[in-house]
Fold these 2 entries.
Entry 1:
Amino acid sequence: MTELPKTFDPAAIETRWYQHWEANGLFRPDRPGAEPFTIVNPPPNVTGSLHVGHALDNTLQDIVVRYERLRGKDALWVVGTDHAGIATQMVVERQLNAAGQKRTDFSRDDFVAKVWEWKAESGGAITSQLRRLGCSMDWANERFTMDEGFSKAVIKVFVELHQRGLLYRDKRLVNWDPHFRSAISDLEVETKETQGGFWRFRYPLADGVTLADGSDHIVVATTRPETMLADMAIAVHPDDARYQAVIGKEILQPITGRRFKVVADEHADPELGSGAVKITPGHDFNDFEVGKRAGMKAADMLNMFDADANVVQTADGLIPDRFLGLHRFKKDGVDGAREIVVAEMKTLGLLVPHVTNNKEGEEVAADFEPRTIQTPFGDRSGVVIEPWLTDQWYVDAGKLAVAPMQAVRDGRIEIVPKSWEKTFFNWMENIQPWCVSRQLWWGHQIPAWFDDEGNAYVAETEEEAQSQAGNKKLVRDPDVLDTWFSSALWPFGTLGWPEQSETLSRHYPNDLLISGFDILFFWDARMAMQGMEFMGDVPWKKLYLHGLVRAADGQKMSKSKGNVVDPLGLIDKFGADALRFFMAAMESQGRDVKMDEKRVEGYRNFATKLWNAARFLQANGVTASTSREAPHATLPVNRWIIAETVATVQAIDTAMAELRFDAGANAIYHFVWDQFCDWYIELTKGSMDEETKAVAGWAFDQILVMLHPFMPFITEELWQLTGARAQELIVAEWPVALYEVDTDAQGEIDWLIRLVSAIRTARTELNVPPGAKLRMVVRDAADATRGRLDRQGAALARLGRIESLAFGEDVAGGAAQIVVDEATFILPLEGVIDIAAEKTRLEKALTAAAKERDSLGGRLSNPAFVEKAKPEAVAKAREDHAEKTAEAERLKAALDRLG
């Protein structure tokens, strides 16, 4: 047994132990006959760095995996990274730009080769960061969504979905990023508030038609005037009396001369503006749906932009030449289509000015009404997203969603917390076709080839496609697949599918998926769709959705706010164990985690307390236990700590079964800090006989095992330093949760703890000098209490600083009275403190506390304060009110003790 250093230094042990575990294959010990347990890690982007969301997500996963490994299971934690199409291509393009080059200077194959070079040199930094967090992943079988085996699975799924009629090519609106010249997913769109305008224009009715009031035009309002060059209709509500006479009549668009109809559609809100809405189905998602309802085919909808969001001619050829080539709006100081459209409509007298009154009451006209607009941006490009009508590949998500919904309904997939089921069903029941093609070079190139007539031939290889096409010349689709398409295969593609291996059959379905709620639709639901379609079974039996990690004030973290917390910085400062324990203790189902560095520091102190307890035990001759079974014990204090240990094992088992990470962390925390360190060690100081040494060593071993999933580094270090071990802690055995509890012993020690705690509280509240020893007089004690006082008298004297004990004596002068169960314990204070002065102090303090309590209570009972004040101000007032209420109660109790 090695003597423990005086201080605990996490940095000195974390790297050493992680390297030892990984080098010795301890993350995946050979357990062929054991019950399998499988979980897959959401593959982080190969370009990514560890953020606090990763820290939470991976900590929770590692806790579960280490727990199941300790329970003897064949625990597999699948690990890998995602090729991250847009993000990775952007990183490499930036490197080329810095060298004065650009992507198009290279052939596609040469550029892709450069991306692979970048990955080999710089990609995957996050994998080393996950190691720093302590993640016990199966690194020996690390996967990458672009590796050869996984790519084979991706191509096969695409082809088979097409063969089954579940994947097709269609013309629809997509989120188009003009910077990347690619469609992007909803997850990659970031909506921001921008200062924009609300323009109003008069659209002339054609053929002399007028409204009921005689107007020869309809006023429409828009935040995107440039799109009028591709307008195809005006929509009015079918019940709006103002427009009944013109439904089906035609509008003459002033700039293009295009004629189109007034259509009835409930999308138009009679209460909003004029109640009439211009419809540009090729450049607005809502308008696209209105157009379809009006009988327009997607192929006939007009598109006025190219891939760079510059104006191109529409299919009907009606956009005037002066607009062609313009950007959609002002760019680099040059007016775009928006500015010129507004100017021309104004010249034509068709711009309705926005009129307001200035300070002098005079009317002032402006071209538009200033509005705050919710504007979509590409999260990586920072460019305004353009809804763009284009040909893309789509998955029939509606059909694929049926089986997962049924699996959730019948319990084959359990969603935790259950409250997320409603959100899941709402999205799945209204799911839209899934656009899976991206206009990039980096990614899985779509296995489709086109002939000169535009017919597509989908096959796993070019040879197979050519055999379908005969002797026609074919060109492969240059697009790649959405990265979510490949990651949707993660639960089975990482296990060797489409090969039917023992690994696949043993570990699919996975047991659990832990995921942030924010990717429930983008990843989780799609895994369920693909897994059930290709494996015929659910991808995982349980789906746990955790919240976000927010700043201390509850705000979402963002670089612009300057409130982003670096988890690696916290690991450097406090150690990985402290950060992990914080994440577990704060993870309460259905709630976000508020980052609190002070609490992380507190859990660093918890690790130090554990370390110091180990040093105390070692100094008193306590060594490692030789058995999972509790030692034979006769002393009440030893039988009590055994029972408390077993109760903690049971509490953690229950918490883990329910995925209550906070409950599990808090159970072991309070057992270690309160029962073991604060009470058991104190109660046994100076009386470490052989029985107590054996029990203390056993209990401490159980602590190390129970705490290991939460704090793996310090527990492994202490496991090795406190005695000879047959194996590392990471592959030890979970404690036995069976023990015949001695209720008498448990009741006796609980009684002693309550009595000592009450004595210490009274001494503190009444300002009794710490070194003063007091007499104690006991009244109304039953025989059982007298027996306990006899057996625990020495401990009571030492811990409560009691110098003598008597029964039933009269007490002269002031005294503190403590009631525990049926007995009253009196502490004479005459000559120990100035009782009159102490009463005066307590009365003044009570009056002040009650005054503050009542003042705060008055504010909180005022609806104006609760409803109008900032939420953080209301929360602070409630916190202060609770604190002053407790303080007043404590001071009153202290006064009552003095009589």
Entry 2:
Amino acid sequence: MALLTTTSAVAGPGRAETCTAARGAVVAVDFGPFGGDVVRGCDPAPTTGYDLLHEGGFGTAGTEHDGPAFICRIGHGSFNGGARYPTPAQEDCVLTPPANAYWSYWTASPGQDDWSYSRYGAMDRRLKDGDVDAWVYGGTGRPGFSPDDVRPGTGGTPGPGTPTGAPGAIDVAAAAAWLESRLTDGDRVVPEGGDTPDHLLTTEVAYGLAAAKSGPALRRVTAFLASHAGEYAYPEGSGGAPDATAAARLALLASSTEADPRDVGGHDLIGDLSAHVCAAGPESGEPTPGCTARGDFRNAGYTDGQALSVLALLRAGVTPAAEAVRRLTQVQCRDGGVTSILVRPGEYCDGDPATTALVALVLRRAGGHDDAVAKARAYLAGAQRQDGSFPGYTGATTGAVHSTAYAAQALRVLGDGDRADAAVAWLSREQLAGGGFGFEEGATDPALYPTPAAVLAGTGASLVTLTTERTGPTDPPTSPPPATQPPTSPPPATGPVTPPEGAGPDLAKGVAYLTGAALLKQGRYYTSGPGSVRADFGLTIDGAYALAATGLSDGRLRGIVDFLDDRGTDGEGRTLHDWTGIGTPHVLGGSLGKAALLAETVGRDPRHFGSQDLVAALGRSVCAGPSTAPDRSCAAKGAYTYTPSVFGQSLAVMAQLRAGETGAAREPLAYLTALQRDDGAWPSLVPATDDSDVDSTAIAAMALSLAGGSAADRAVDRALAWIASQQLPDGGFPGAAGNSVNSAALAVQGLSLDASAYTGEITRARAFLASQQNPDGGFNVARDGQRGSDLRASAQAVSGATGISFGTLERDLTGTSPQPTPGPGDGGPEIVTPETVTPGGTGGAGAPDIVTPGGPGGGYGASGGKGALASTGARAGLLAVLAALMVLAGWRCTVLARRRAPAGGEW
């Protein structure tokens, strides 16, 4: 390991010795690739990861294209006089650096001695006391030192103390009553706005009712599940391999209710699970569908499915294959946590408390793995917060109900009764008035998924021990349930969207958030950072897509389009074309495609958008072959220049196809098609990486669907099947930020290409999006991430919830009024078109509002009203005269204060 040095040469709060293990946050930067040491600094009052670097004495530089938010160079006064690396000779920092030569960002929370790759950029990561950050150059691996190596003090991280907090007990009867109230026809869960039963949630409810000894309701639910076992657990038909997770859930329910898991709806769940343990994984070189590695239960996919399958066999008196049990130890991380994804041995591992607790319970029941159980127990003790709760994932700063409930179950069995009691007491304080539980700390809306787990914790039970006396027959119903009906028509390509009430997020509120004056400034959004005057053109186009998809604010959409088309400038004098690089040696094909696609969406001419021919430039950006280092402009033949992602490739392909350039798009389309993996998924990056990404798969499917043809249709079918297989129990989808809003929204768009086949998945995903919408109308980044509305996630959530593909999205702006496009030095009042966003409305053009630059506070986003006059004296008098003249002319005026809000990066 390289020598660790502190920032002792730096005066003031950046000195590492001013922080302690419990006070302040620490950052360590490894200058090893440039001949230096690991240098650390700290911030005694941490705010963001970006500020931590600077308060710790480091200097940074961003890229010319993305601004300071994308950290391209880092330096420190203790190394080579503060020179920032990589040097300009090593990396020009004009565009985003390649994936094998950039500063990767790693984080660790208090009590954790293993690194997790950051889900957030440095400007967006919010820190707390005890956090540790690390920056490593190269992009090829994790830090070569541990968090404890760089924490203040020589004794490492203090051992976890016993949590404090008032004792409490869960009202099990109230929770069970709430669960019963959520059943449709008294025997199944049907998501709001849908007509397809959610078998997974129905099974979860059954566990809760079994723990609460709710006999009559439990009998009805188990009868329904038994009669639908084939539909739930055997998607390939009775002759194929079962969905291991579904089969295991049903088998555990049967064992818990004294039924026979070998005869559930005529299916031998135990025999079928035992018969479908993978003999090998992809490393064998042979096709192994549904297998990640040897010992997997076929089609398990996630660690909970593997663990539940092992437990189902154990509870049925069957000894599971040793390899199947050993697989649970192979997904245990170095810090003792267990990752939720059934990764291959040796792959990147990031544990979470809920999965760790479940695996600890199962391994203890299986026996023979005491070391793994002890490590999991220590991990859980370290992850428990002082109030008794557990976070949902590494780095989360609030308690999560599901994680806390599972941890309580495991800790009680493992002998940590005091910790289990503290966890249950925290759960009792989170129980809502109606009896249910929300997903996380402070939630105000109850949800089905976390509530049953809390009931089990409240009764002292777990899936290992859950049992109840059989109080009656479990014969299936004499009449079948209503058949699931597909939607009568696919989502509309144009016209205001009117989804069923309660079926998904509130699009009107979402649009109001996106168009609030605090965020949308004269037709554009701004990048993160205090006082930023740099427009985020990629995010601005994202917002335009969302407005086009809903049809709820055509005036604001017109304002964005006019700003881009009229070559409007931001505070740095940059236009759309500075972002796309058109006319320069660094043309970004994906960005060109994104801009051209917007023009096509709203009926503008992409061949004359912003006085440039985007279509011709896009054609010229198609690579004839891979470039030779150090030139990294072209990944392969058919790729677009400086387009490092499948997302950008797909947007550019759709732009060319919509422009009628089928010949020019032939090679890019062929390259995109070739990137599809055998399992139907696409990777995230270009050239292809060894990952499978929901977002990229969804956007690629939209591009191929637009292209059409039998081969493309088959590729789309495989892609949609893979996307559906990735859906999480709560309806969300995994993404870079965890259980991601962005990924769920794109999954809805992708699955809506064949809406009739994926009605249930779409309904659950839209319900998940609704659960992540905040009172201000915006959306969280992820279920278990930092709380608070994020502009980029909100734009994608609103757009995706409509289900309209980017390949067919259209919005007619005829009848809307032109919008002014001031330059960066314009000191006059900002004039924007007023609108009232209403469901089904088109946001017609009215008279302009006056927005006073530089005014304090106020604004749509701040107060929900129209604000007040923000200036005084002569300037206020001038505005008052102008307002009076406008009122006399039949115009309505309002003076709003300008306030910048953080945005994010760009695609």
